[in-house]
């Protein structure tokens, strides 16, 4: 069964004619969902069938459907309403309890809904970000909607003035780390702004991501100087305090609660684009999307109404902004590539979850598949390693293919079977294309265009990061005061009194605190002892290897001196020959220019002499070729003999080791016997000769 013939794509019997059909898959491509009208279908892509559920309350004119990162929830929305639906993956028959999976419904009474996204860092995907046609951005906790007030950003007639708001917002998208919300404004063509950080009420950070954010904030703080703008200083310091608080909070609890004051951020930008192509000066933006190129770096894709696609790289690190209006610091993009598709209408950019550097562009005629992995993989490796040299030899040109459909496409998603495919779905047609080779997001090994030389890596039983964490814990425990402090009155009393029980109780509690601190210190001491011991062994190994290299270096130097003297002799002989050759060449030139020698005829003896010279030259050339062939045979025989000697040496290595061990044992026995003999002689001298 092919992808196109899978039953999940069959027309719904309850769907109205001409209704839109949306197709989505989970991030691993292993589970698929099809939404049409009020019917939701789901299946595992490896199974031949599917399951379905009909919404209790019909939902018509669905504008778009988005899936959470975990694949557990769907958000269906149109201009006036959105619904959150839980996908019942573990159930096969849900007709009797369909209402239990319809978790949330929101009706917008004021502005119309333009776009909805799940917040990628929200705890249990409980937060959605809603863009409305009044340019406001609402951050809503749908699981706690009745008890909490949504956060609204970019207000034009509310908390902030009109000058600080971003107008004519066309599209929003999250960055790869989930902290930056990029905004596309079309008021002046195509301007990109950012809300950083864009936070949910409850968040769940990846430890590595939070550590990277902490290191970046520290670096931004360290580069501040006297000439830095006051707004930049204030935001940078506030960012460092905020990230430090998150870091401490994560160590004590799994869910991070974000206060409302820290969730109210302000936009920054617009971002500059350099170089800015002349052909898009009069163009208007239609959409933006984030394109990951490895697990840490990303590109930003911007589509324009003239059919161009701009691929941008953020070349500077921005700072968080809470208070400053029209804040603009390090808001810069570098234009990496401008792709012209020829179509005058780009509907949507779809970034798949299957491969780094690949995305699709939907147009009314079909779907363009764009693969940047040939150069974006090299760029990602260069950015990770801070080495741009391989990028200079790379051609920044993407691969573009087109798939034509009978009607306007609605969805593009990854279908993870064998072979893996990218599926394009419209209301009347389904087409699939096998995934091209690239760097998979499920593969942690990100490779570039060059092969790294093999490096020596020391392997220890415990990483240094854990030891440093244990050290920090010990330092923190050591700096803490005892949990119970003896009151001043009790301190003045002698122990032999009626209140001695109270004093002993306090001393017992204090001793427990000290014992716990000592235990942590002992654990740290043992850990450091083991680490130092392992490092000593590693140092021994490295010193041994260094000694072997130095011995080889000495041997090489010895050969170098002898070969250098031979080379000098050869050069001196070469100089002598060259002087004789030049003299001979001058004589030949004089002879050639002499009219006397031109008039002379070649004698019979000279002809015979030249023939003999030609014969000798041919013989010499033949002997040279024979010598080269024999030399190659000797080199081959030498290599074979070395290989045989190495094999024989490996077989006899154990016997040599046993012989050296026996020899060492005999030497020790000899030393013991000599000591014993010396002691006997000394004792004999002390005994008198006659009793």
UniProtKB/TrEMBL annotation:
Location, primary (coarse class): nucleus
Q: What are the GO MF terms of this UniProt record?
A: structural constituent of nuclear pore
Q: Where is the composition biased (Basic and acidic residues)?
A: 426-444, 487-497
Q: Name one GO biological process term.
A: ribosomal small subunit export from nucleus
Tell me the compartments it is located in: Nucleus, Nuclear pore complex
Q: Name one GO cellular component term.
A: nuclear pore linkers
Question: Annotated region Disordered: where?
Answer: 426-455, 478-497
Superkingdom of this entry's organism? Eukaryota
Give UniProt keywords alphabetically.
Answer: mRNA transport, Nuclear pore complex, Nucleus, Protein transport, Translocation, Transport
Give TM regions: none
What InterPro entries does this protein map onto?
NUP88/NUP82 (IPR037700)
What name goes with this protein?
A: Nucleoporin Nup82
Q: Corresponding gene?
A: TDEL0D01880
């Amino acid at each position: 069964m092919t992808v196109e013939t899978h039953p999940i794509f069959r027309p719904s019997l309850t769907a109205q004619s001409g209704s839109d059909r949306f197709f989505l898959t989970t991030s691993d491509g292993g589970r698929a969902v099809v939404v049409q009208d009020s019917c939701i279908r789901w299946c595992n892509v490896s199974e031949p069938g599917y399951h379905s559920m009909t919404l209790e309350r019909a939902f018509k004119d669905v504008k778009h459907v988005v899936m959470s990162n975990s694949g557990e929830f769907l958000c269906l929305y149109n201009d006036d309403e959105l619904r959150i639906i839980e996908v019942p993956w573990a159930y096969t028959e849900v007709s009797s309890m369909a209402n239990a999976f319809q978790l949330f419904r929101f009706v917008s009474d004021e502005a119309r809904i333009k776009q909805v996204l799940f917040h990628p860092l929200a705890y249990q995907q409980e937060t959605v970000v809603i863009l409305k046609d009044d340019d406001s951005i609402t951050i809503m906790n749908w699981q706690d909607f009745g008890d909490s007030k949504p956060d609204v950003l970019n207000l034009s007639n509310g908390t902030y003035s009109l000058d600080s708001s971003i107008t004519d917002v066309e599209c929003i998208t999250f960055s790869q780390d989930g902290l930056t919300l990029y905004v596309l404004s079309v008021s002046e063509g195509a301007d990109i702004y950012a809300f950083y950080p864009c936070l949910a009420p409850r968040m769940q950070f990846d430890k590595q991501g939070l550590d990277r954010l902490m290191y970046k904030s520290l670096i931004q703080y360290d580069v501040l100087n006297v000439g830095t703008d006051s707004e930049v200083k204030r935001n940078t310091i506030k960012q460092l305090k905020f990230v430090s608080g998150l870091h401490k909070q994560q160590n004590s609890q799994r869910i991070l609660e974000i206060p409302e004051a820290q969730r109210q951020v302000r936009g920054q930008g617009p971002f500059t684009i350099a170089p800015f192509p002349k052909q898009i000066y009069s163009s208007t933006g239609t959409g933006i999307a984030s394109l990951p190129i490895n697990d840490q770096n990303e590109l930003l894709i911007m589509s324009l109404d003239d059919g161009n696609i701009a691929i941008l790289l953020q070349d500077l690190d921005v700072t968080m902004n809470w208070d400053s209006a029209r804040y603009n610091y390090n808001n810069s993009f570098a234009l990496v590539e401008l792709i012209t598709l020829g179509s005058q209408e780009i509907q949507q950019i779809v970034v798949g979850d299957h491969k780094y550097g690949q995305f699709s562009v939907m147009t009314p005629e079909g779907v363009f598949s764009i693969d940047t992995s040939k150069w974006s993989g090299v760029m990602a490796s260069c950015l990770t390693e801070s080495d741009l040299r391989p990028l200079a030899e790379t051609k920044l040109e993407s691969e573009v293919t087109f798939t034509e459909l009978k009607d306007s496409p609605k969805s593009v998603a990854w279908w993870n079977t064998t072979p893996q495919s990218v599926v394009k779905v419209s209301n009347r047609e389904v087409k699939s294309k096998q995934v091209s080779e690239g760097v998979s997001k499920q593969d942690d090994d990100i490779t570039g265009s060059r092969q790294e030389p093999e490096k020596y890596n020391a392997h220890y039983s415990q990483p240094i990061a854990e030891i440093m964490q244990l050290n920090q814990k010990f330092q923190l425990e050591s700096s803490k005061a005892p949990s119970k402090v003896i009151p001043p009155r009790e301190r003045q009393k002698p122990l032999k009194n009626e209140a001695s029980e109270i004093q002993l109780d306090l001393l017992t509690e204090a001793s427990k605190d000290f014992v716990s601190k000592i235990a942590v210190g002992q654990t740290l001491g043992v850990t450091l002892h083991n680490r130092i011991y392992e490092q000593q062994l590693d140092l021994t190994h490295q010193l041994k290897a260094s000694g072997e290299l130095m011995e080889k270096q000495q041997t090489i130097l010895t050969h170098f001196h002898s070969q250098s003297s031979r080379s000098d002799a050869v050069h001196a002989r070469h100089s002598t020959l060259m002087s004789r050759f030049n003299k001979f060449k001058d004589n030949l030139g004089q002879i050639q220019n002499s009219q006397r020698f031109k008039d002379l005829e070649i004698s019979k003896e000279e002809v015979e002499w030249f023939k003999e010279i030609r014969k000798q030259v041919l013989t010499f050339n033949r002997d040279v070729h024979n010598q080269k062939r024999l030399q190659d045979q000797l080199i081959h025989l030498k290599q074979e003999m070395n290989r045989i000697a190495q094999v024989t040496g490996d077989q006899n290595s154990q016997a040599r080791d046993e012989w050296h061990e026996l020899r060492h044992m005999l030497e020790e026995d000899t030393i013991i016997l000599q000591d014993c003999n010396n002691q006997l002689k000394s004792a004999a001298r002390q005994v008198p000769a006659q009793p």
